[in-house]
Amino acid sequence: MITKEVAIDKIEALENGIIQVRQVTRIIENGAELSRSFNRWVLAPGVDISNQDPRVQAICNAVWTPEVIAAFNAQRQAA
Question: What's the pTM?
Answer without folding.
Answer: 0.89
